[in-house]
């Protein structure tokens, strides 16, 4: 990769960070379900936050305000988007491991293993199971693998705000504006047992993520489209 | 009484919805749920947000209805126009007072609708219509489903190439030749002893889900 391209992605990542900081600092939050988070943390197992890809920006703001960023470790896409996003995550002081879907499968496996190790060591993690390219609202098997291997509890999250722009792409990515009023729903924790069937777990994940998002939309009095 | 004005406006609406239906390129997911809902042997209530009527009503009639789809509509000044539109489409308009009227006349009308649905006629209801608030399900549809034992079939549609009216429901009038993504959700069965509120909540969630999915499908990268 050229130096110039690299530099440019770093600038993009920093700009993204600056914008998300602005959104976080000016945002108001209404959160439903703190007790679910406490229950998940009290279970003593690693916590894996999950939400649909389109609401990631909302999660970043929520996490930046209420959770410890240093505690986070995440799997992230390995192509050039990852350069920008990696920079963004580093500025937020989270740790990311990049997995290149089309690249070396061993390297990808190593990255996932590192994430699992870090989770077992007590860090929290976050994943958007329909990312990075969709199809929308269909969890991919990776999330089930990660959750079962780490013995994690999956904590479904729904974020919605009416003060936002929805990108015209597969996940209808929600870009909140400054001074947005966020409505957050933390769903019931879903423990992933190692002996669970992958398919069953995926169906359950789909259900809880939809439920959390829909609840957040109802709280926000949302328009589901525009 | 249907005056010339109502007929003209009704014909205009009919032309628009025919144009959408004939020239639209529909991209449908969830067709299997229609069969599933029918398999129970009861009537089906199609439910969709009010803003999508132009994309969905004609399409549902053409693609899935054996005839005589009951369309619930208000009986005020809009009613005559809408009734004319529905009749031209081949549906059965069912004007009702939707403003919380509790006289016997309204009750009798509703009872007639229930009876026709029990005989197996399907219905099309916009649960946040006719005046909003947007995206909030009112209890009427839950009551109807409970009384008739019909399955609720949530449907959502999305297109980018259309004109959105600047009003409460962001009513969409698609341009001719639009690509329209339609998603039909899992049918909801309402037990006779269910609380109305539980049903409206379930339906709200289902409608949010299909609508989001329709928008996502529309923008899905295609190979």
What would you note in describing this structure?
The complex is a heterodimer of chains A (about 230) and B (about 220). Chain A is of the alpha/beta class. Chain A is built from seven helices and ten strands. Chain A has helices at about 5-25, 35-40, 55-65, 80-90, 105-120, 140-150, 200-220, and strands at about 30, 45-50, 70-75, 95-100, 125, 155-160, 165, 175, 180-185, 190. In chain A, strand 7 (about 165) and strand 8 form a beta hairpin. In chain A, helix 6 (about 140-150) packs across helix 7. The radius of gyration of chain A is 17 Å and the shape is globular. By secondary structure, chain B is α/β, with parallel strands linked by helices. In chain B, about 45% of the residues lie in helices and about 20% in strands. Chain B has seven helices and nine strands, in the order H-E-H-E-H-E-H-E-H-E-H-E-E-E-E-H. Chain B has helices spanning about 5-25, 30-40, 55-65, 80-90, 105-120, 140-150, 195-220; strands spanning about 25-30, 45, 70-75, 90-95, 125, 150-160, 160-165, 170-175, 180-185. In chain B, the strands form two sheets. In chain B, strands 1-9-6-2-5-3-4 form a seven-stranded mixed beta sheet, with helices on both faces. In chain B, helix 1 (about 5-25) crosses helix 3 (about 55-65), helix 1 packs across helix 4 and helix 6 (about 140-150) packs across helix 7.
Question: Keywords, please?
Answer:
heterodimer, A: 226 residues, alpha/beta, 7 helices, 10 strands, globular, B: alpha/beta, 7-stranded mixed β-sheet, 45% helix
């Amino acid at each position: 990769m050229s130096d110039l391209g690299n530099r440019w992605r770093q600038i993009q990542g920093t700009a993204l960070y600056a914008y998300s900081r602005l959104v976080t600092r000016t945002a108001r939050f209404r959160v439903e379900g703190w007790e679910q988070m406490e229950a998940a943390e009290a279970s003593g197992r690693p916590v894996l936050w999950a939400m649909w890809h389109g609401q990631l920006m909302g999660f970043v703001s929520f996490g930046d305000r209420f959770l410890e960023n240093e505690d986070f470790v995440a799997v992230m896409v390995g192509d050039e988007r990852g350069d920008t996003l990696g920079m963004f995550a580093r500025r937020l002081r989270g740790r990311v491991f990049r997995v290149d879907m089309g690249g070396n499968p061993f390297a990808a496996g190593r990255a996932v293993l590192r994430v699992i190790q870090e989770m077992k060591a007590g860090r929290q993690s976050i994943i958007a199971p329909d990312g990075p390219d969709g199809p929308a609202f269909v969890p991919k098997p990776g999330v089930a693998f990660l959750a079962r291997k780490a013995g994690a509890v999956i904590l479904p999250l729904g974020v919605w705000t009416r003060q936002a722009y929805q990108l015209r792409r597969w996940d209808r990515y929600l870009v909140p504006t400054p001074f947005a009023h966020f409505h957050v729903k933390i769903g019931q924790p879903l423990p992933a047992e190692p002996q669970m069937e992958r398919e069953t777990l995926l169906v359950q994940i789909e259900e809880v993520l939809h439920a959390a998002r829909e609840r957040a939309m109802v709280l926000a009095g949302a328009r589901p489209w525009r | 009484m249907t005056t010339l004005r109502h007929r003209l406006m009704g014909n205009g609406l009919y032309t628009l919805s025919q144009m959408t239906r004939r020239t639209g390129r529909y991209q449908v997911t969830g067709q299997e749920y229609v069969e599933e809902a029918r398999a129970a042997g009861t009537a089906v209530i199609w439910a969709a947000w009010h803003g999508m009527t132009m994309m969905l009503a004609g399409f549902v009639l053409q693609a899935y209805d054996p005839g005589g789809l009951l369309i619930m509509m208000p009986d005020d000044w809009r009613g005559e126009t809408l009734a004319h539109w529905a009749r031209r489409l081949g549906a059965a308009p069912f004007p009702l007072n939707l403003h919380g009227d509790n006289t016997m006349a309204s009750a009798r009308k509703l009872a007639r609708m229930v009876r026709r649905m029990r005989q197996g006629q399907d219905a099309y209801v916009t649960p946040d219509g006719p005046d909003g608030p947007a995206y909030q399900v009112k209890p009427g549809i839950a009551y109807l489903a409970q009384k008739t034992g019909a399955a609720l079939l949530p449907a959502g549609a999305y297109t980018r190439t259309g004109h959105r009216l600047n009003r409460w429901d962001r009513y969409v009038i698609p341009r001719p030749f639009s690509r329209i993504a339609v998603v039909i959700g899992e049918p909801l069965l309402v037990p006779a002893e269910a609380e109305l509120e539980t049903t409206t909540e379930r339906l709200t969630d289902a409608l949010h889900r299909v609508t989001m999915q329709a928008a996502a499908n529309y923008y899905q990268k295609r190979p």
